[in-house]
Amino acid sequence: MTNPAEILGLPKPAWAADEVGMLYDMASRFMAEEIAPRYDEFEKNETFDRESWLKAGAAGLLCASMPAEYGGSGGTFAHESAIIEAIGHVGVDGFGIGLHNSIVAPYILHYGSEEQKQKWLPKLATGELIGAIAMTEPGAGSDLQGVKTRAEKDGNHYKISGSKTFITNGQLANLIIVVTKTDPDKGAKGTSLIVVETDEVEGFERGRNLDKIGLKSNDTSELFFNDVRVPTSNLLGDEEGKGFVQLMQQLPQERLQIGTGAIAMIERALALTIDYVKERKAFGKAVIDFQNTQFKLAELKTEATIGRVFYNDCVARHIDGGLDPVTASMAKYWLSDLQGKVVDECLQLHGGYGYMNEYPIARMYRDARVQRIYGGTNEIMKLLIGRSL
Ligand SMILES: Cc1cc2nc3c(=O)[nH]c(=O)nc-3n(C[C@H](O)[C@H](O)[C@H](O)COP(=O)(O)OP(=O)(O)OC[C@H]3O[C@@H](n4cnc5c(N)ncnc54)[C@H](O)[C@@H]3O)c2cc1C
């Protein structure tokens, strides 16, 4: 197959050179050799296994942007981008290490005490701990102020009760950052993030591994907290009530990371489709010889190029600490919308074979859909952008 990383023919941005480029190559090899051969099994089981996480940890693919003193590789978001791009280019999109690396671990690095960092980050880096973040509840998705999960202080413990749903890595995760209300009367100011190490507590239950239309191999679950007791030292931050601010501060990276998955899948879809239309014959010629095919692919390649240039600029700004929440929302919404469009058009160019699961474009079509929903729906992104007008 044509290399998705080269399909747009663009020069590499400065942040993707040297060691980041080497990490991309290494991660691509790992995904192709260790994960891709077992991917159908994970899709069928609707979950990865712990062994794959431990192998990714041993290969240095977990916590790449965490400092070396906490077991990470001391990189930046550029390193995380390289890993997520490798996942997308190889086509093992259900491997939930993007969330673990660039969402869960950073909360602990940025808001954790020294003791918390030493306790949890090295194990997140080896894969002994698998991370998840539990914000969404049956009654609170877009509007996180409606979270009902309660954390009540009881001596030197919190007692957590409530339920969460749609939680990525929910069947395997054993370190879960739970969005709770420590003071329900204070609205957003009564929200706190508390870490639950599920192996250490009683009263924690995993619900169903939810039956999704795509991203089958990624376990997505309901979680139940029935008076789960954790030490008060599991609070993230030096005082209660900071949870909402912490969430808002981390959202730009979470949103940019969805853009990473989007641009990587766009490039893979183009590479696969260009190969396909060169091979497939109709009316005595290759499908690529029809002007419609060329025009369609010309449009998609142009839009993908615009998307990649925008994405690269966002990463450069993020590494310099200058990616504002509005631009991150633009990246999430625009790139995931473009992903949906490109994958749909590419499937069309495959004809009936595009609808068959044995062709990768079929799975990409199912996997792409959720990108417009999670991490804040694209409507919420437009709301945030609208506020800046
Ligand atoms: C596969 C998957 C994985 C997920 N992983 C996680 C995870 O790891 N952790 C986690 O906490 N959550 C996770 N989620 C949850 C996800 O973030 C939410 O589904 C999402 O934020 C939307 O919330 P909701 O489903 O309650 O939709 P709702 O909030 O009920 O929205 C329904 C519709 O109304 C629209 N809408 C809502 N408010 C407004 C408004 N003010 N203006 C205009 N339109 C509006 C929405 O855009 C949407 O179209 C995941 C979801 C999925 C599907």
Distance between the termini: 44 Å
Major sheet size, sense and barrel closure: 4 strands, antiparallel
Helix content: 40-55%
- Number of strand segments: 9
Structural class computed from helices and strand pairing: alpha+beta
Distinct helical segment count: 11
**Which percent band covers the strand fraction?**
5-15%
Globular, elongated, flat, extended or rod-shaped: what is the shape? globular
Q: Low-confidence parts lasting 5 or more residues at pLDDT below 50?
A: none
What's the gyration radius in Å? 21 Å
Order of helices and strands: HHHHHHEEEEEEEHEEHHHH
Q: What is the strand arrangement across the widest sheet?
A: 2-3-7-6
Bound molecules: flavin-adenine dinucleotide
* Integer average pLDDT: 97
Summarize the topology:
Layout: H1 18-35, H2 39-45, H3 50-58, H4 77-90, H5 97-111, H6 114-126, E1 131-134, E2 150-154, E3 157-168, E4 175-181, E5 191-197, E6 204-209, E7 220-231, H7 243-279, E8 281-282, E9 285-286, H8 291-319, H9 325-349, H10 360-368, H11 378-386
Parallel strand pairs: 1-4
Antiparallel strand pairs: 2-3, 3-7, 4-5, 6-7, 8-9
Helix pairs in contact: 1-4, 4-5, 4-7, 5-6, 5-7, 7-8, 7-9, 7-10, 8-9, 9-10, 9-11
Flavin-adenine dinucleotide binds at residues 132-136, 141-142, 166-168, 212, 215, 220, 370, 373-374, 376-377, 379-380, 383.
